[in-house]
Amino acid sequence: MRKSLLSVAVAATILSGCGGSDSDKNDDDGKNLDGKVTVQVIDGYLSNAEVCVDKNSNFVCDTGEALSDRTNDKGQVTLSASDSQYPLIARIIAGETSDSDHPGFVWQNAELLAEAGNQLLTPFSTLAQLNKQTLASYAAELNLDASLLSQDYVALKSTNAEAKKIHLYARTITKMLGETLAFNDLESQKVQIQALKGHIQGLENNNVDLDTVDLTVNKEGVVTQTERVKGLQTFLEGHGTLYLPSPNTAGNVAHQLRFEAGKITESSFGWIDIGTAYQVSDMSLSVDSQPVAKADFLYLSNDFALGYFYHDPSNKLLSVWLSEEDYQSRSTNLTKEDLINHTWYHLRDLAEYQSGEDAPPVPALTELTFISDSVVMVKPFGKTAFQASWRFEQVQITPPPGEPDYDLQSINIFYGDAPLDPLLGNEELMSITTSFTRGDLMLFEQEYKPLFPLTVIMTKNKALAEAIYTRWKP
């Protein structure tokens, strides 16, 4: 149950007025010579976050409350001494804000909160305020050093083991936060954080380096542990031959590339020779081919990357970059429950159907909201949604002798009496079958006669879908 925002705001005001914050003693820290105050936004360092001065204490970033500057690469921004006397809200904006914990942009909106006078906005300051606690009492519940929660624990990690643990808590708790302060499910978060506490204790007991793992906790308190993403170059060079299934490529053929110690050692692109040098910078790749090839990546995990590969910026090959093992892995595990009561975003390239293989992409984005086990709302980008029917099927595939059976899933959406729409390929239905599923991102093969099925992308992440669509367009 979500607690009343008004009651939390009133309680926060009382705590602030009573001097209940552990940060009161730090009011003079961070003041510049001109009287301005530097505040910092971190789980890791959050750059290009928007900071708002909550002058009416309603826990909302209202019009006129945002600072003109956004945070720098250390998560810092300055404000006047008078503004520092109000609560502060930091808006982590999907597709715009970056986190030093992870390459590229953040793809989940969230908001952090700090009471008046507090110069550090963190997941801890946020949940302490929302739960009507001081930072000290919140730290005590987690058996953490309260003094470190009011400091730059990221900078302290090299000399303080407790700071490393606090950082793991912070980057995990941020994933639990609502898109706005009003959308925090405090009771579910308590379950999640207790599960997180137990898991981290187990890691410590087993002497695991806490900087090497990433944790995610669902609302039922189930903890998932993965290896922390090390960066684009590590991904490219650590997965052997990479396969690039793409909505731009006809015939359901994925290109291949292999990266080793600064040289291309395998390539299915005719204009990229074996032995060609490449360079990696942040989330960008440059290949010294003729013409020069570039790749700009939007998303990176340990399992896959998503980005655009091109030598002509007007004709970008949108691809999901997969290891050979993941690309060849046939079985998928999508369920009907993954769809019902959820909205997914479907991305396809219409150029193959309309203009031929070498034409610049014609991206199409369609919002699919699965209302029930038979009804779906279909909304092409920029148009009005219409109701359609749909059917989900588990499909068992029997391959040639000697190979194991495997399972795929198919979704068929029937447009009914809706007029044919160019943004839907002028089709009467959408028929797609899974080829790769990983969390909130999936690849499907979509039937389109007389061509071979083409790859389409689906994701639950609206911000990521819109960024893919916007940056894919010529």
Automatic annotation (TrEMBL):
What is the protein's name according to its record? Answer: Lipoprotein
Origin organism lineage? Bacteria, Pseudomonadati, Pseudomonadota, Gammaproteobacteria, Vibrionales
